[in-house]
Amino acid sequence: SDHMENICGYLMKYTNLVTGWQYRYFVLNNDAGLLEYFVNEQSRHLKPRGTLQLAGAVISPSDEDSHTFTVNAASGEQYKLRATDAKERQHWVSRLQICTQHHTEAIGKNNPPLKSRSFSLASQGSANSPGVQRRPSQNAVSFFNVGHHRLPTGKRVPIMQPDHLVDVREMMSQAEGQQRDLIRSIECLPASGHLTSLDQDLLMLKATSMATMNCLNDCFHILQLQHASQQKGSLPAGTTISWLEPKISLANHFKNGAAQNFPAEINKPASVREEQSIAEPCQLTREPEEINPDEELEDICDDKEDDLGAVEEQRSVILHLLSQLKLGMDLTRVVLPTFILEKRSLLEMYADFMSHPDLFVAITNGSGPEERMIRFVEYYLTSFHEGRKGAIAKKPYNPIIGETFHCSWRMPKSSVATEAGTSSSVHSPSEQVALPKDAEGQVEPDCYTVKFVAEQVSHHPPVSGFYAECVERNMCVNAHVWTKSKFLGMSIGVTMVGEGVLHLLEHGEEYTFSLPCAYARSILTVPWVELGGKVNINCAKTGYSASINFHTKPFYGGKLHRVTGEVKQNMTNTVVCRVQGEWNSVLEFTYSNGDTKYVDLTKLSVTRKRVRPLEKQGPFESRRLWQHVTESLRDGDIDKATEHKRALEERQRNEERLRAETETPWCTKYFLKDGDGWVYHKPLWKTVSAAQTQQTDSN
């Protein structure tokens, strides 16, 4: 029931790594909108050990178990709590959410929108000025001069008009610019000496100034929503959002138009203004596009991520970022620094897992269900090595909603294994197999083509869908992945939530599979990637399954990147194949008849993907969308890359806000929602089924 209720009782509260979990007595005060806790019930009459304001808070049940939940206050403080069972957790969560909603709504209803304030933010001097000296009394407060002008008592604060919102946005834009200047001044300080860029007070100043600007942006968004709710009923259809920026037409507003109001925007590179002016995706054609493989050219990009220079130079930025993160914190909404990015989108990374298409196509050539399952396991385990670019752990671009990536692979039919024990991977990584062509330059029928398409179908949560097919062999794979990242101290963990299904239509078989977790280790020194967790592959029709364990390195001893697994027949519980080795080195397959096969992943042939040139790509295809970020990273210009990246992210936030305010649902282009998953709109199994039905009818 949705009624306010004061509740109290014991919960376990996570304190820190040393102390761990402790029982504390919690009290929910609905009237005040507070969650308080005491050492025990007997000390309830004393001052609380801790208090959280619930207005603006987020109450989140944890997915790690059925007892844990978190309370994230608007101030940034977080309580991680654990109830005795799932029923008690649900009771606390529902009461807290009702109280939070009540007091959050009261802010917009009862408080005046905003009092007149003038902001004057100035960094005290420049980092390049020799006269800057640190005084004993100098602290974070001296860097800012914020003046508050109180209105005469008894006078009613007028409702803020649209022009006032424009003025506020202009003031905030100036404040953001000065805050960036402050950060830049601190980071330009020498690495050693009396006052350095790693000074603890300055790091704290950077964090608090950034948090202040984030808070102001959140408050401004509340003001926008408040005005939207007040004026929604009185404005004609189609103009519910035009008041936000009255100097811009509604059509241009969908182009992140607020940017052109500010003089600072004139100095932005043309490419940044272009990124901000791309029309809202739903305004473009969302009809699926048929990509002609003949327009695709062999990819010549080879961006290995082995450069550690930027990471070494930006150590202070990493320290600053770590100072703001909490153990177990969800990193989905955390903006990570640009210098740790790979030069490709996450959607393209999924495509790179298909860099051995000969092994993929060879699966359906297996002589029986047992061999086909073993071949799928072999392909699965060999896909992760090429999916990584270099030894340094870097993060691919977060795809924006509506982003797509297309590519294909071509290989001679003679390079694909057809019989048990034969291998298509006998070429060195640098060796490319020549494709036969006819007189007109077209690929002849004795080549297989594997086509790939990926789309970012959701932003929160971040979900990607991808699909690949080989029409000649009647096989395709469909998958959706939700990437959930968490801060783990000196490493970052990424859980790949989702499922993939391989369809072998020639045999009527479906193989379901999941993906392992990924970890970026040693993020303060030389970051490296590790896979971990257990994955399962199942074929319900044949009764064969595979269980694969990616082992993380133990604290003492042990090997890196170790993987073990087994394939078995479920009906007889008979193990028909065992595999062990390293997923980025050598794998050993041992069969039930005693035979052994070794696969050296470093010597497997790599088929380069084929991609359309940038000029033929749509504005929301990955490489064209991120081209300016990629070019800046290649040139080593981190500031310019950050500016381009920020423009894309800001446009996405504005578009998401507009869709929420106008209640416009997002429409995907290639993938359709199917229960908890996403399915390609025109999968091969539907095409083949329709063709067979048509042939039957004609007969």
UniProtKB/TrEMBL annotation:
Q: Does the keyword Oxidoreductase apply?
A: no
Per UniProt, the ranges with Polar residues bias are 117-137
Subcellular location field:
Golgi apparatus, trans-Golgi network membrane; Late endosome membrane
Say which domain of life the source belongs to.
Eukaryota
Q: Which InterPro entries match?
A: OSBP_sf, Oxysterol-bd, Oxysterol-bd_CS, PH-like_dom_sf, PH_domain
**One GO BP annotation of this record:** lipid transport
Supply the SUPFAM superfamilies for this chain: Oxysterol-binding protein-like, PH domain-like
Q: Listed GO molecular functions?
A: sterol binding
Q: Which residues form the PH domain?
A: 4-101
Task: Respond yes or no to whether keyword DNA-binding is given for this record.
Answer: no
Q: Which UniProt keywords apply?
A: Acetylation, Endosome, Golgi apparatus, Lipid transport, Lipid-binding, Membrane, Phosphoprotein, Transport
* Region (Disordered), start-end ranges: 104-137, 638-658
Q: Which reaction does it catalyse?
A: a 1,2-diacyl-sn-glycero-3-phospho-(1D-myo-inositol 4-phosphate)(out) + a 1,2-diacyl-sn-glycero-3-phospho-L-serine(in) = a 1,2-diacyl-sn-glycero-3-phospho-(1D-myo-inositol 4-phosphate)(in) + a 1,2-diacyl-sn-glycero-3-phospho-L-serine(out)
Q: Which Gene3D superfamilies match?
A: 1.10.287.2720, 2.40.160.120, 6.10.140.1150, Pleckstrin-homology domain (PH domain)/Phosphotyrosine-binding domain (PTB)
Q: Which GO terms describe its cellular component?
A: cytosol; Golgi apparatus; late endosome membrane
Major localisation: Golgi
Q: How does it assemble?
A: Heterodimer with OSBPL9.
Q: What's this protein's family per the entry?
A: Belongs to the OSBP family.
Its job = Plays a role in regulating ADIPOQ and FABP4 levels in differentiating adipocytes and is also involved in regulation of adipocyte triglyceride storage. Weakly binds 25-hydroxycholesterol. Interacts with OSBPL9 to function as lipid transfer proteins.
Name of the molecule in the record: Oxysterol-binding protein
Q: Which organism is it from?
A: Pheucticus melanocephalus (Black-headed grosbeak)
